[in-house]
Amino acid sequence: MNNCVVGLQWGDEGKGKVVDILAEKSDVVVRYGGGANAGHTVVVDGEKFALHLLPSGSVRKDTVCVISNGVVVDPEVLLTEIDSLAKRGITLDGRLFISENAHVVLDYHKTEDRLREEALGKNKIGTTIRGIGPCYADKIGRSYAVRMADFLNIEGLKEKLEKILEYKNKLFTALYKAEPTSKGEIFEKCKSYSQRLSKYICNTTEYLFEQIDSGKEILFEGAQGALLDIDHGTFPFVTSSNASSLGVGPGCGVPSKMIDRFIGVVKAYTTRVGAGPFPSELDNDIGQYIRDKGHEYGTTTGRPRRCGWFDAMAVKYTSKIGNIDEIAMMHLDTLAGLDEVKICTGYTINGKEVKMFPSNIDTLAKVECKFETLKGFNQEITDAKSFEDLPAEAREYVQAVERITSLPVTFVGVGPGRNQTIFRK
Ligand code: GDP
Ligand code: IMO
Ligand code: MG
């Protein structure tokens, strides 16, 4: 069975945890999009792993990991991650495959990301400054792109970098009045990336089809969330890739028809980091309660996450475009202690019903949420092992989400640990 795990909100839904659980029964885990803007947390026996580029299956020593063509790879972050796992006794040797076609994030992408955001001032997107937008822009623009395959031809890369840095430095100095990037320094770094990463670089499309044809089970790990999708999210407050499950085909070459099950991950509420509209946001004590109890601070940037009620209107939309079969709902435990909990069931504009979540932010800015209010639960649920262990109000909350979204909730998260998940199938 081939599974795909994707976020249905604005990222950080708990994908890392769900992928880690499913990786136990998968042979290969593939990261197919995004870059080091992602921060996927896995907690094993109280030990925490925060992964940015390696698939979350990497913490399991026998799982093969693929970083496919759709990912933008920052070699510095990747090597730090490989080294930090090695220090914890987990080696990637012989089980990491990186696409030759994956694009490379270099220092000048991060500089460009920062300069652009600074220039935008109060209109900034609130990016992670990981160079994601500039790298994907170079990919689409083609003329100034660096791919993993370039590390296999270091002399060719030297020539390419000359041309790229001439262009980038004109941009930095003339437009932004900033310092130029040193050509020599970038090239020396690339030489060392090439020495360390060449052994992992290959044709991952060929590799994946070999695995699929020999009956291996593949798990596709989405990054970010569908509302951050460049085409279908809340543009321009999105990331630069197809972060919904629509990105899986272009991101790794495997058509979505070959994926048996799409699992959409949500939190029992909604969070968002960075700017942009958020109709069910709780900019009040309840939002702060959720932030504190759920430790809602970014895995990648440490920024406080904005918190709000579960937005079923948004999830109905993202599950439709994502062909979602079932929902994994994380962080139910975080809602414990609230007298009442709300679910946004729909939107109106000037009293008129909105049919589908509008990704156009000008329309989204005008919506008013309709809420269904449910009783809260006081009892802590972090030790619950089965659905029946949950208080009636918590079960009713999950069932309300199933009713409103018309999707089964098959996993319920009651804590960050690998074992703090209730399976309902
Ligand atoms: P991802 O980007 O979707 O992988 O999610 P992140 O790792 O960025 O953020 C999710 C956070 O919630 C992490 O700190 C997880 O350890 C934590 N987490 C995941 N599931 C649960 C859950 O069910 N309950 C609680 N309390 N924490 C959870
Ligand atoms: P995971 O995989 C939450 C957000 C940023 C910003 C916008 C654009 O951990 O769920 P970018 O650096 O991509 O150009 O930033 O997207 N963003 C995320 N928010 N989780 C993520 O990844 C995110 N990756 C990007 O905060 O608003
Ligand atoms: Mg995250």
Word description of this protein:
- The chain has 425 residues and is of the alpha/beta class.
- The protein folds into three domains: 3-101 and 200-262, Adenylosuccinate Synthetase, subunit A, domain 1 (Adenylosuccinate Synthetase, Chain A, domain 1, 3-Layer(aba) Sandwich); 103-197, Adenylosuccinate Synthetase, subunit A, domain 2 (Orthogonal Bundle), CATH 1.10.300.10; 266-423, Adenylosuccinate Synthetase, Chain A, domain 3 (Alpha-Beta Complex).
- Helices cover 32% and strands 20% of the residues.
- The strands form five sheets. Strands 9-7-5-2-10-1-11-15-19-20 form a ten-stranded mixed β-sheet, sandwiched between helices.
- Helix 5 (154-175) packs antiparallel against helix 6.
- The two termini are 15 Å apart.
- The structure holds guanosine-5'-diphosphate (GDP), 6-O-phosphoryl inosine monophosphate (IMO) and magnesium ion.
- The site of guanosine-5'-diphosphate has 22 residues, from helix 1 and strand 3.
